[in-house]
Every structure is written in C-alpha cells, then in structure tokens.
Amino acid sequence: MLENLRERLQAHRPARLDDAFTQAAVLLPIVDRPVPTLLFTRRTAHLTQHAGQVAFPGGKREAQDTDLLATALRESREEIALQAASVEVIGRLSDVMSLHGLRVTPFVGIVPPDLPLVAEPGEIAALFEVPLTHFFEDRRTHTDVIPMDDADVYVPSYRVDDHVIWGLSAMMLVELLAVGFAQPISMTHPPAQGELHYHPRRRRATAPLSSSSPPH
After folding, report:
1. Residue-range definition of the domain harbouring residue 150
2. Which DSSP string do the residues of the chain spell out, in sequence order?
3. What distance in Å separates the CA atoms of residue 28 and residue 169, rounded to the nearest whole number?
C-alpha cells in the first residue's frame, strides 16, 4: 500500500497558490503499521484560533525556516516531539487557503510505529491515529457543501470516537485518498448518499486551486 502511495505522490503535480499569502505548512504523518494509520492532533480548547479542532501538526512559516517543508517538520517537532530524522517525506499535496488567510502547504510523510510522541500541552490536547481503511470505506457523517463562485465543493466530515475530522484537514485528506490511494472520492461532485450541510458562499483565492482543494 505505502509503496504505491510513494509512486503516486511522486508523479503528482499539486496546485499552488500565490506566494503573496501568509505561508504555513502541515505534515500528514502516516504510521507504518501492518494496517497503516494517519496521525491527527486535537488542539486545546483555549487557543484563539482553531480551538478544539482536529488538525495535522503544522503552523506558520517562521524566519528561520529554509522552506515550507522545514516549517512542517519544525512544527511537528514542537507540537508532538516528532523528530525530522524519523520522517520519510514522500510527497506534497495542493495548497489550501484557511479562513484566516493562510496559504497552507501539506506534506506527506511516513513514520515508524510507536514513537515516543508527546503532545505540547499549550497547543495539543490529544494525539490519535485512524486506520486509512476507515477512510477507504468513506464513513462520513455528513458532507459540508461550500459554494465557491460558480461551483459547489463537497467536503466530507468524519467522526472517530469523540474526534471530528472536517474542514481544512478533511480537504487535505480527500486529496491524499484520491491521489495517493486512487480512492473514488471527490469534492467536485456530491456523494451518493448522506446528509448535506450547506454553508455561505465564499470567494476563491486569486490563484487557482486544484479541484480537490477548495479554500476554507
């Protein structure tokens, strides 16, 4: 499974947003277990932005970061004590735009199982893993419908125990599933079944996004 993922991501040409936006980066850590899992964080409830939300480790680019990959790896070390030497970076996904005006660049990495990861208590309330096969079965609870100029985008929402995976993280997840694992999932068409939750219209960023990555 992971060898095919490497090949597909190496051949992928992710979409880019304008460099004028404030830059951020995240890491999508895939844990190399017999059934591979995807590692998520849940942010603490007291933060001023994204409080209590499920996310991937990451954050804003800082002056000392040589590039956005360095940002993703630094933030992963700071937030969950994931050392860069333990990460095999295998690809990059399309940029996405956050509601707060950040251009977020996702990187995909493979990490060994059972690392001594520790959540930074000021930012991270919990770490949890979800088997990728859970998403292959598309166990979404509902779909958020976001009008974007002349088209709607369909963003799945998943519940795993008491964690809800939605929004920006779900957008990145869709591209990972569609491109990296050739799963029949898309945000350009409504799902075959399930409840739809409609949201207010939003404007696109000034640079194009891939069809799998609308701004959020």
Report:
1. 2-198
2. -HHHHHHHHHH-------TTSEEEEEEEEEE-SSS-EEEEEEE-TT-SSSTT-EE-SEEE--TT-SSHHHHHHHHHHHHH---GGG-EEEEE---EE-TTSEEEEEEEEEE-TT------TTTEEEEEEEEHHHHHTT-EEEEEEEEETTEEEEEEEEEETTEEE-HHHHHHHHHIIIIIS--S--SSS--SSS-EEE---BPPPSS---TT----
3. 9
* Residue at 21 is within a domain: yes
Q: Is residue 125 part of a domain?
A: yes
Which tens digit of pLDDT belongs to each residue from 16-75? Answer: 998 888 999 999 999 999 999 999 999 997 655 555 799 999 999 999 999 999 999 999
pLDDT in tens, 135-149: 999 999 999 998 877
Query: Does residue 216 lie in a domain region?
Result: no
In a domain, 208, yes or no: no
What total number of domains does the chain contain? 1
